[in-house]
Amino acid sequence: MTGTESDEHGNLSRHDARFLHLVHVEAVAAVLFDPVATLAFLDVPDAELGRLLKTRIMEVVGMSTALNIDLRAIHGPSPEEANCAKLAPDLRMGERRSLVDDGKLLRTSRYCAASGISERKLSRAVSAGRIFSVDIEGEPCYPAFFLVRDLDRKDLAKVVRRLDGLTGWSKWEFLTSPNMSLGNMTPLQALMHREVKQVLSAARAFKEGSILATVTAKAIGVLGSKEAAKHWLATPAIALDRCRPLDLLHDPNGVESVMTLLVRIDHGVYT
User: Fold this and answer.
1) Which of 40, 175, 179, 195 is deepest in the core (most CB within 10 A)?
2) Could you report how far apart the first and last alpha carbons of the chain are, in Å?
3) Given pLDDT bands bounded at 50, 70 and 90, which one contains residue 3?
4) Contact at 8 Å (CB) between 13 and 5?
5) Considering only CA atoms, which of 142, 114, 134 is closest in space to residue 57?
6) Neighbour-count burial of 62, counting CB atoms closer than 10 A to its CB (0-12 exposed, 13-18 middle, 19+ buried)
């Protein structure tokens, strides 16, 4: 066992200096802030106190994502993290894994524990389009910002549904990246300011742009060049009831028809 792992008695097998220092700082801060309320913690069962603390930590990390605060930039990486970054063969995957390490993405068990819902209820929420997951090495992980109480759950669900059809990572990219149409705020920040209509409009534009990029890339792969793909997308096709492929990309069924036609063309069927 390493780090702060526990033995069969629940004791730390090897004390991590940073972890113990953090516990000390939290205890000092709590006593100085409100000594009476802090002493009341002593009457709370250990398991319940630990659960409350962990849940609140996950909520605060989720808030940092919503406010677009880069926690690593504030404190800098530890020597161990810097060394791992140098050795990572896939930088993008390494960056994505760091989102889990930072608590910005939560594995299923942690998300359920923090939100107080069962895995079955979580699955229903995903199916209903209220929340989404991203894939980390074949395992679903859920954004901690879904735990943030200052984000209206219904408004956030509307935006997630507007992005229906995109990958989880595309949804993450949209929600956490500064957007010029929102005054260079991220959509999450804009939702904190209750700018729901503007975010929904930006989400629609992002989705259309993402779909166009995906279809264009497929067309280039099938037709051989960017110019040929551009011409094909703007030309009425008999197989599409003489509609231009571009005109069908605003509807999921239309996108499916265009992609299906590209597959047929790739197999030598040109109508």
Assistant:
1) 175
2) 63
3) very low
4) yes
5) 114
6) buried
